[in-house]
């Protein structure tokens, strides 16, 4: 139990009985509230198997010494990136700390809670409703598909997620064969090559005139300054 007698983990609320015992169990709770006795509380908290759980449980409590830290120390600790990642067991309500990770957050504090939830049929979670897409956005997405846009380009142009664009494409039955994708890729490559050739011709013309600096030429040709230097070096060779 914690400084005020509250259980912070490993107690009879968890299926399977006691899992972990905190070091403070059986000690006088006043030790954790009297500042003069905090050195004694710190000694008790050392090597406690529930140190992080206790710290997470009492991180917003401004009074007791808990989790091996004073209230001010817990405030500083809670502001760190790793310390903000907390979870609460959907089975027993126990609050736990987990390492930052991508993907679905952890739902249960222990294997016992997860197995009990499966046995009780409580593992079904309500699916989040899909984001609504306006008719104008849907029509624009279809138009972009016919222009040869893929998922990433269409999502960036419309300002929506790729999954939303995929829903629109699938809803309209818009699918391309591998040959069509290869043709679009080849067409995009040809357009990019043509654009590079146009920039090269413009840069060479401006360099031949000799009236602008490389920086000014880069602005006029809408290219990088390094590109201008490379073309100038090639002309001098």
UniProtKB/TrEMBL annotation:
Domain 4Fe-4S Wbl-type: 23-76
Pfam families in alphabetical order: Whib
Location of the region described as Disordered in the Swiss-Prot/TrEMBL record: 1-22
Domain of life from the UniProt record: Bacteria
PROSITE patterns: 4FE4S_WBL (PS51674)
Protein name: 4Fe-4S Wbl-type domain-containing protein
Lineage: Bacteria, Bacillati, Actinomycetota, Actinomycetes, Kitasatosporales
């Amino acid at each position: 139990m914690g400084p005020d007698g509250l259980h912070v983990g490993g107690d009879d609320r968890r299926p399977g009985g006691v899992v972990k015992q905190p070091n403070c169990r059986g000690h006088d709770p006043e030790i954790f509230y009297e500042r003069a006795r905090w050195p004694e509380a710190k000694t008790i908290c050392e090597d406690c198997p529930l140190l992080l759980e206790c710290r997470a449980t009492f991180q917003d409590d401004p009074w007791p010494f808990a989790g091996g830290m004073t209230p001010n120390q817990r405030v500083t600790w809670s502001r760190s990136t790793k310390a903000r990642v907390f979870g609460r067991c959907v089975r027993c309500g126990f609050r736990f700390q987990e390492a930052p990770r991508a993907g679905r957050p952890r739902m249960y504090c222990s294997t016992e809670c997860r197995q009990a939830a499966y046995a009780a049929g409580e593992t079904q979670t309500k699916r989040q409703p899909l984001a609504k897409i306006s008719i104008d956005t849907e029509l624009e997405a279809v138009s972009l598909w016919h222009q040869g846009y893929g998922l990433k380009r269409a999502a960036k142009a419309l300002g929506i997620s790729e999954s939303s664009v995929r829903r629109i494409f699938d809803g309209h039955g818009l699918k391309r064969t591998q040959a069509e994708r290869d043709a679009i890729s080849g067409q995009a490559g040809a357009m990019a090559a043509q654009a590079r050739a146009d920039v090269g011709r413009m840069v060479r013309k401006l360099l031949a005139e000799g009236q602008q600096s490389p920086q000014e030429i880069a602005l006029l040709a809408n290219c990088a300054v390094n590109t201008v230097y490379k073309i100038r070096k090639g002309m001098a060779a």
